[in-house]
């Protein structure tokens, strides 16, 4: 039940698309990275570079296996964003293009977007609707400034905005962003929270493989985000700042995606073994047990190899970021700020939907189905307030009822 996806190798229906996306990224990103760094200017935010690939190649673009056109949007801005997000440029290209194998999650949402993982599972490529593409271009400056002023933002980290077009084909817009979930730990429960109740319960038959629960499941299960005073303040302060931006930009329909790793459960060996089949051996997707075994063996045999192993694993720690610092996530704490057994992997996702677009779609569906059904197409301000209020209400420093068990507090 892990969100791993199926391998996109030759013969897969989306192989050509994935190949073109990765080839385009490789060529355009390495071209921009190859230049001497310089400060951003206003034009950088609206810039777009076109590349035409064909089987024979020319002096500007190397030959590719297929004919296609590629557009890179605001390359300099994304170069600077990747730097703010502390990505190593060589690493980024390696992850996305070292081999043309990515895995596809298919289309988990209702939107029809496709998701691909980089082969090391660190990055996600998501195809987006044209309205989302326009939104990101419109807000790019605000987003950039927000990231600059809020290095710990919970909003999705965007690393690139691109488009591919096949001859006579559709234009496919896509973004590259961070995968919130780690390659080296099982996620035991996953929730996509919006703070709304309308249709927010996943029924058992709703899903077969990857189970992503919703608000009402969260409430049914009596879940909470356990954070002591220090982490609670860090988290809610950042969330409030992030939501304020989304409200101001008239964005809605985003969620807090939260994956919970329970350290007492650890990793399931056979899930990891499947993972190894999906991903090439040599990628960092290996089990914690295997890592520990390796570490032990290397301590005496080869200290340099041990250092290398730690270097690779550190890519997932991301110690520079508060919410991704505990093994890639944010560890639960108790009322004394002491660590608990859950690690939260969380962030605000799907945050490029303009209010007008949601409204149009929902009005359309409303017209088709039952007119009496009340549908929550509420403006961005209300959406943001409701979202923040809900998340705030589920962050607790002490579990309900625990005080009675311990008996240190009276009602
Ligand atoms: P819809 O508009 O119907 O909600 P969508 O196609 O826009 O769907 P998202 O809401 O962005 O898709 O994501 C769908 C699911 O994909 C999420 O619930 C989550 O399981 C997974 N997902 C999305 N973004 C990330 C991410 N950054 N890291 C890990 N998983 C993600
Ligand atoms: Ca969504
Ligand atoms: Ca969406």
Q: What does the model show?
A:
This protein has helices at 15-33, 75-84, 89-97, 130-149, 215-220, 229-248, 269-278, 288-301, 303-314, 355-368, 380-394, 402-406, and strands at residues 6-8, 48-53, 68-73, 102-106, 115-117, 123-128, 158-165, 171-178, 189-193, 213-214, 225-226, 255-262, 330-333, 339-349, 395-396. It is an alpha+beta fold and 411 residues long. The chain has two domains: 6-178, Phosphatidylinositol Phosphate Kinase II Beta (2-Layer Sandwich); 180-398, 2-Layer Sandwich (Phosphatidylinositol Phosphate Kinase Iibeta, Chain: A, domain 2), CATH 3.30.810. It has an eight-stranded antiparallel β-sheet. It has a five-stranded mixed β-sheet with strand order 10-9-12-14-13. A two-stranded parallel ribbon has the order 11-15. A hairpin with a 5-residue loop joins strand 13 and strand 14 (339-349). Helix 1 (15-33) runs antiparallel to helix 3 and helix 6 packs antiparallel against helix 11 (380-394). The protein is globular and about 65 Å long. The chain starts with 5 loop residues before the first strand and ends in a 5-residue tail after the last helix. Mean pLDDT is 83; it is low at 269-285, 370-376 and 402-411. Bound molecules: adenosine-5'-triphosphate and calcium ion (CA) (2 copies). It comes from Sugiyamaella lignohabitans. GO terms for molecular function: 1-phosphatidylinositol-4-phosphate 5-kinase activity; ATP binding. Residues 9-395 form the PIPK domain.
């Amino acid at each position: 039940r892990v969100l791993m996806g199926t391998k996109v190798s030759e013969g897969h229906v989306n192989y050509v698309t994935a190949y073109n996306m990765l080839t385009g990224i490789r060529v355009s990103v390495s071209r921009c990275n190859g230049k001497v760094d310089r400060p951003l200017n206003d034009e950088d935010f609206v810039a777009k570079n076109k590349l035409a690939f064909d089987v024979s190649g020319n002096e500007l673009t190397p030959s590719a296996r297929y004919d296609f056109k590629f557009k890179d949007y605001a390359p300099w801005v994304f170069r600077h964003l990747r730097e703010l997000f502390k990505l190593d440029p060589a690493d980024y290209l390696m992850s996305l293009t070292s081999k043309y194998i990515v895995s596809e999650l298919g289309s988990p949402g209702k939107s029809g977007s496709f998701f691909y993982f980089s082969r090391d599972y660190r990055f996600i490529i998501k195809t987006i609707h044209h309205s989302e593409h326009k939104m990101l271009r419109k807000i790019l400056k605000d987003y950039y400034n927000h990231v600059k002023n809020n290095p710990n933002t919970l909003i999705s980290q965007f690393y690139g905005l691109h488009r591919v077009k096949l001859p006579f084909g559709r234009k496919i817009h896509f973004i590259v962003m961070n995968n919130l979930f780690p390659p080296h730990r099982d996620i035991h429960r996953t929730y996509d929270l919006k703070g709304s109740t309308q249709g927010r319960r996943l029924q058992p038959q709703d899903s077969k493989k990857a189970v992503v629960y919703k608000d009402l499941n969260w409430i049914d299960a009596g879940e909470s985000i356990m954070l002591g005073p220090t982490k609670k303040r860090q988290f809610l302060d950042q969330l409030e700042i992030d939501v304020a931006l989304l409200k101001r930009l008239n964005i809605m329909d985003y969620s807090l995606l939260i994956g919970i790793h329970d350290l007492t459960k650890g990793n399931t060996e056979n899930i990891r073994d499947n993972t190894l089949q999906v991903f090439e051996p040599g990628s960092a997707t290996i089990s914690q047990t295997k890592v520990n075994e390796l570490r032990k063996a290397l301590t005496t045999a080869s200290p340099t190899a041990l250092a290398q192993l730690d270097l690779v694993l550190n890519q997932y720690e991301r110690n520079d970021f508060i919410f991704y610092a505990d093994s890639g996530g944010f560890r639960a704490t108790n009322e004394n700020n002491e660590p608990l057994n859950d690690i939260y992997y969380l962030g605000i996702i799907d945050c490029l939907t303009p209010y007008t677009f949601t409204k149009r779609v929902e009005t359309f569906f409303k017209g088709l189905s039952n007119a009496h059904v009340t549908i929550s197409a509420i403006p961005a301000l209300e959406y943001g307030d409701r979202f923040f209020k809900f998340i705030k209400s589920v962050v607790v420093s002490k579990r309900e009822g625990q005080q009675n068990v311990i008996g240190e507090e009276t009602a």
